[in-house]
Design brief:
By secondary structure, the chain is an alpha+beta fold. The chain is built from 3 helices and 3 strands, in the order αααβββ.
């Protein structure tokens, strides 16, 4: 992950959260590892296109229960974001 700390010196990457960027690199590493092991089953992994299936993963989340169907999660710079619980 030393490359990430060097890449974060660029202004555009500096604005994002390091934890989210680290998780994206882990996901890419896992996708490439799976592709190299089973090339005949998968196409080469690519980055998602802008505005299509956008999402992110975060570690160390603060979640609080509102009721049986709704919870809230704390996202830095956004605050508490409400979401519907659809799975255990």
């Amino acid at each position: 992950m030393n490359e990430l700390s060097q890449a974060r010196k660029v202004a555009r990457l500096k604005e994002g959260f390091a934890a989210i960027q680290q998780q994206a690199l882990r996901d890419l590493d896992r996708a490439l590892h799976n592709w190299y092991k089973h090339r005949d089953h998968f196409e080469r992994p690519t980055w998602h296109k802008k505005d299509i299936n956008e999402g992110f993963a975060m570690r160390d989340l603060s979640v609080r229960r509102l009721n049986r169907k709704w919870d809230e999660v704390f996202i830095p710079t956004c605050g508490w974001v409400k979401f519907r619980v659809t799975r255990q």
